[in-house]
Amino acid sequence: METEKLFYADPFLTEFDAKVLSCEAVKDGFAVALDRTAFYPEGGGQPYDTGVLGGAEILDVHERAGVITHKCASPLPVGAAVHGKIDRARRFDHMQQHSGEHIVSGMLCATYNCDNTGFHLGEESVIIDYNADIPWEGVLDIEARANRYLWENHPFEALYPSAQELAYLPYRSKKELTGQVRITRFPGADCCACCGTHVAYSGQVGLVKFIGWQKFRDGVRLELLCGSRALEYLA
User: Fold this and answer.
1) Taking the model in full, what pTM does it have?
2) Helix, strand or coil for residue 127?
3) What mean pLDDT value characterizes the chain?
4) What pLDDT digit, counting tens, does each position of 190-207 carry?
5) What percent of the chain has pLDDT over 70?
6) DSSP letter at 122?
């Protein structure tokens, strides 16, 4: 049975109740599956959520074939009702970074007719690769445009189009997709196939700041800070 993904219905949800469907001993922990979860599993360049589930520390979260597995520090009884609590600060930081990356990437790809070929949301910054020779001056121009977009406070949208509807949607994607595709959109800035968590309005990103530029393969690699990371850097 596929796990119900509460983080798509409400990415700001950080506490929830669920039922334990299975618990198996694995290396350095216990693999727990629930009927539903608000813990985001690692994927799409975004790290997994951490926190506590039924009193057990969450060490890792992954998804396979629609089932989300929580690696816990201690076992949980099968059939039990458990309460989950997500690290709120870590979740919101990831939402700010991922949303800010979407906005700047949408603008950069449209301006320079290129693709975002790599994305990594690290503990300190976001690294993004593009297959175009984008000058630093152009990056700073996009940074200014993106910040204006944030302050205009545009709404975020998540769509689940049919295969026929998807064929006519102009969206960014790094690979061929099959099955139900989730399209995330910041109107006027970006439309992209993405499985991550995002803010509800662009204003919640707060600020975007590029801090690195280098030649990489046939294009450039940029380093980006969003939200509280950008504020701390500038302060």
Assistant:
1) 0.94
2) strand
3) 95
4) 999 999 999 999 999 999
5) 98
6) -
Model confidence at 175, in pLDDT bands (50, 70, 90)?
low
- Helix, strand and coil percent figures for the chain, each rounded to 5: 25, 40, 35
Side chain identity at 182, as an amino acid letter?
R
pLDDT value at residue 167? 84
Sequence-separated contacts (24+) of 179-182 with Cβ below 8 Å: 182/8, 182/158
Query: Which of 90, 82, 83, 16 has its CA nearest to residue 50?
Result: 90
CA distance 235 to 169: 41
Burial 142-177 (b: 16+ CB within 10 A, else e): bbebbbebbeeebebeeeeeeeeebeeeebbeeeee
Structure tokens at 26: 């694995």
Q: How far is Cα 7 from Cα 14, in angstroms, rounded to an integer?
A: 9
Look at strands 183-186 and 190-193 and give their pairing: antiparallel
Q: Given the DSSP bridges, would you call strands 126-130 and 4-5 parallel, antiparallel or unpaired? A: unpaired
Burial-class residue 9 by CB neighbours within 10 Å (0-12, 13-18, 19+): exposed
